[in-house]
Amino acid sequence: MSNNEPRNIPRHVAVIMDGNGRWAKERGQERVYGHINGVESMRKVVGAALRHGVEYLTVYAFSTENWGRPAQEVQALMELLCKSLANETAELEKNGVRMRFIGDREALSSEVRAAIAASERATEHNDRLTLVIAVNYSSRWEIVRTVRALATEVADGKLAVDAIDAEAVSSRLLTAGIPDPDLLIRTSGEQRLSNFLLWQLSYTELYFTDVLWPDFDGEAFDRAVEAYCRRERRYGVLTK
Ligand code: IPE
Ligand code: IPE
Ligand code: MG
């Protein structure tokens, strides 16, 4: 991109970080080796997002369905999350990053909940980039809890049925106040959403790459943003 071209940087980029297990297997290592190396990719992508002036970066770290993996892998992922938060929060704080977590916290251990709360607290005054980390997240779970919240408000006489519109739903999701993603990146060649942000991705541009997550870096992020800049977003209407 030349400097003369209008900047059309996505405000919000969502990422399904996939392929850690296959990356490790290719190297004859245990799956957890891929997860450990994936943390480095995460650091590079945060750096690239800051460089581009992206305002929101949402990453899928652990899905509700991931509990179905072997206990040893789940345990390793939870420990890695705690360790990474302990190691990275100060640097993120210094770089103006605000951290927010979405997902069902109830099922997480007290250690993980404490680590999450500490990172949110330490960075809550920042506003350069909001890093949203989805942990024990599933979009259907999020939508179901929102439907329940709306139904409760109606039953309590606090909300009229006619007042339920798209905005009423959006404002009760865990992503309330965050604009919908402009760009979704999924690594590792899989082309599916795996229960991630189903409501929020309605008009998002999808970008799939064969690169496995531990190989994804700032340049790979640049390529995704460049591809996004070439897209024409129509939202169902005629633009030409
Ligand atoms: C993504 O990599 C990380 C998580 C889902 C936690 P995977 O662990 O899914 O790696 P593959 O897809 O099996 O290669
Ligand atoms: C999606 O990846 C979840 C995360 C990246 C945290 P998975 O590897 O769990 O998804 P599937 O099984 O390929 O759909
Ligand atoms: Mg996977």
CATH architecture: 3-Layer(aba) Sandwich
The helix/strand series, from N terminus to C terminus, equals: EHHEHEHEHHEEH
CATH fold title? Undecaprenyl pyrophosphate synthetase
Give the rounded overall mean pLDDT: 96
Quickly give the structural class: alpha/beta
Secondary structure tally, helices: 7
Chemical compounds bound to the protein: 3-methylbut-3-enyl trihydrogen diphosphate, magnesium ion
Question: So what's the CATH class?
Answer: Alpha Beta
What percentage of amino acids are in beta strands?
A: 15-25%
Regions with pLDDT < 50 over 5+ consecutive residues?
none
Name the helicity range.
40-55%
Instruction: Please report the total strand number as a whole number.
Output: 6
Strand order across the biggest sheet? 3-4-2-1-5-6
Distance between the termini: 23 Å
The shape is globular
How many strands, what sense, and barrel or not for the largest sheet? 6 strands, parallel
Q: From the alpha-carbon coordinates, what is the Rg to the nearest angstrom?
A: 19 Å
Number of domains: 1
Q: What do we call the CATH homologous superfamily?
A: Decaprenyl diphosphate synthase-like
